[in-house]
Each structure stands twice: as C-alpha cells, then as structure tokens.
Amino acid sequence: MSIRLRSDVLNAKAEEAGDHTSLAIATRAGVRNSTITRLLAGETTPSISTLVRLRDAYGLDTLDELLALTSEAPEVEQVPA
After folding, report:
1. Cβ density class 1-18: b for 16+ within 10 Å, e for less
2. How far apart, in Å, are the Cα atoms of 74 and each of 4, 17, 36, 62?
3. Residue 66: which of 18, 13, 23, 1 has the closest Cα?
4. What is the Cα–Cα distance from 6 to 64, expressed in whole angstroms?
5. I want to staple 26 with a disulfide (CB 3.0 to 4.6 A). Which of 36, 75, 79, 80 is the partner?
6. What pTM, to 2 d.p., does this model score?
7. Which residue has the higher pLDDT, 11 or 42?
8. pLDDT tens by residue, 13-68
9. DSSP states along 1-59
10. Residue 53 and residue 51: Cα distance in Å, rounded?
C-alpha cells in the first residue's frame, strides 16, 4: 500500500479559489512549485507538513480529503552493493 495525493481534490479546490497553475497552488500554500508539480504528477508522496499547508490554504476540514491509498507497491530504487 502507498499513500498518494488526491490531485483531483486539490485541483478542484484550487480552481474554486482561482488558482489555475501549480505555481499559484504553491504560492497560496507556501510550498515549492517543484513539490506541487511532483505531487500532481504522482511522482512523490506528500509530507505531513505539505498536506497541512494545502489543507489550510484551501479550507479543507481534514487531511483525509487529500489522501488516497493505492494498492501499488512503492517504487524502490535499486542501488548496487
């Protein structure tokens, strides 16, 4: 199991607030644009602090609204021994 950002929820809330780009979302939430871009692309798992900032920025009631559990196994980078 892995945790992913519900980008559909974030995008809908951002649109309601007039934020149409990842930069606008990042600015409102006070996080790096690169973080938002990677989260929206599903390339990374959100940290608790990022989730809290997004929740507060868009007036969500709980962090759960931004989270989805997936059954896919997390990708693990293989490094040579």
Report:
1. eeebbebebbeebbeeee
2. 10, 32, 19, 24
3. 13
4. 9
5. 36
6. 0.82
7. 11
8. 999 999 999 999 999 999 999 999 999 998 999 999 999 999 999 999 999 999 99
9. -EEEE-HHHHHHHHHHTT--SHHHHHHHHTS-HHHHHHHHTT-SPPPHHHHHHHHHHTT
10. 5
Residue with tokens 């990708």: 75
5 in Cβ contact with 66 (< 8 Å) = yes
Classify residue 65 as exposed, middle or buried by CB count within 10 Å of its CB (0-12, 13-18, 19+). Answer: middle
Amino acid at 46: P
Q: What does the block give as tokens for 44? A: 């990374």
